[in-house]
Amino acid sequence: MTGLLAVLLIVLPQAWFYATYTVLVLKATGCRMQTHLSGRARGVSFIIPVRREPIEYLERAVNYIHGLGVEDYEIIVVSDDDEDVGEVLFERLVEWRRKGVNVWLVRRSIPEGYRTGAVNTGLWLSRGDYVYVVDVDAMLDKCLLEKAIGVLEANGNVAAVVGRWEPLNLDTRLSEALGYSMKFIIDAIYRGRSCMGLSVFPLGTGTLFRARVLKGILKGWDQERIQDDMEIGARMMYHGLGVKYIDECAVYVENPSTYRALRIQQSRWAYGATDVLVTRLSHILRSKQGFLGKMEALAFLSQYIVPSLVFLGSLVLAVQVVVRPVDVLWEYAYLLLLLLASQAIFGRHYYRKLKEYSGSGLKALINMGRSAAVTTALSPYYFSSVVKALVRVRMQYARTPKGIHQSASGRLRAPWELVFAAFFTATGLLGLTRGAVVTGLWLLSNALAYSYVIYRWPRDVFFK
């Protein structure tokens, strides 16, 4: 019975995930999206929350927004930095304003609500008709503002418009794999959902909001939630407010360049998505979305539960090999075939898209393998974050490190990647020696993923 449970935990979540994404990709492939509406880029309040961000990133973001030529704009920088950094920011503020940049600086001595609290501070101080939250590592096409304003002016029930995320950097092995995966996911989730007539979730950076809706109906972002975009998206669904996606205008975002930065980001996202699933479940179920829309929204918020269950299933399978030497995966080969079939169908579309993005079939295969290995290595962190969210343990907010802050420090950390690499290697080899060949190979494939991460990013594994 334990063996069957392990196989079900491994097979069913993945088969469901691959089937869902395959449907979305097929829908996106056969659908043409074009937004003919357009308005003047005007009256936008850009809110930039900062804490321990590289000054040069903020400088670039402010100058870039100013250079867009938006009429009657304002930039509100909300800093949760220490006083010494605040003094440096104030000096830059004086320089920017001398150059004619309409930028304001707000320093919060007590960072309540962390990033979400900073965004709310900017929201209540803003005076524009529209609000756009900007991460310091993101850049947007001006056409997004023009087309988004056109959509908002023509559709009173639409509260926000989302642009297409594009990778800003492909300079490392990791950022390249993440960049191509991100393009694929945006194509599937955002384009596919839009083509099916479903509402989409806002993106943390890349969304133009109608200010009066944020202030009057939604009363800002919920500062108790750390995943602000998913949280406010769930409440928009509840209120029957539309969120539209524009495919032809891009928002360029920086992907983590180090495994450490990715681990911090993904741990927060896994907790945040699951936390929203728990706290906003009733909002989605009671929303005006149709049945398919509700189920798809819940599936979107459950995305980190999938690798968490696969990790748990692999642990149970490894223990099973030690306690009772039976080839469980071979015993339930029909379930394994279901997983392999769903993987093959999904993988075909994934490969074709990555080949299209990179221009090389070999590079597509390499990045597919790299992404799979990193996802497996991160699964213990997904599991930990998901469990914390489900049992309502408060997680400390941690910003994704950027620039020089992405590198690991000199402080040692528990190398869980090494622990699980050794554990799955030992149990996998034990399975092979005891005749559990298929199960042993599955465990060794897990060990290989952890080993790859240790080999490629050893400093990020052993140091904080």
From TrEMBL:
The keyword RNA-binding does not apply. The chain crosses the membrane at residues 304-323, 332-351, 371-391, 436-455. It is a multi-pass membrane protein. One of its GO terms (molecular function) is glycosyltransferase activity. Residues 130-339 form the Glycosyltransferase 2-like domain. Keywords: Glycosyltransferase, Membrane, Transferase, Transmembrane, Transmembrane helix. GO terms for cellular component: membrane. It holds the Pfam family Glyco_trans_2_3. Gene3D superfamilies: Spore Coat Polysaccharide Biosynthesis Protein SpsA, Chain A. It comes from the Archaea. It is found in: Membrane. PANTHER family: CELLULOSE SYNTHASE CATALYTIC SUBUNIT A [UDP-FORMING]. This is Glycosyl transferase family 2.
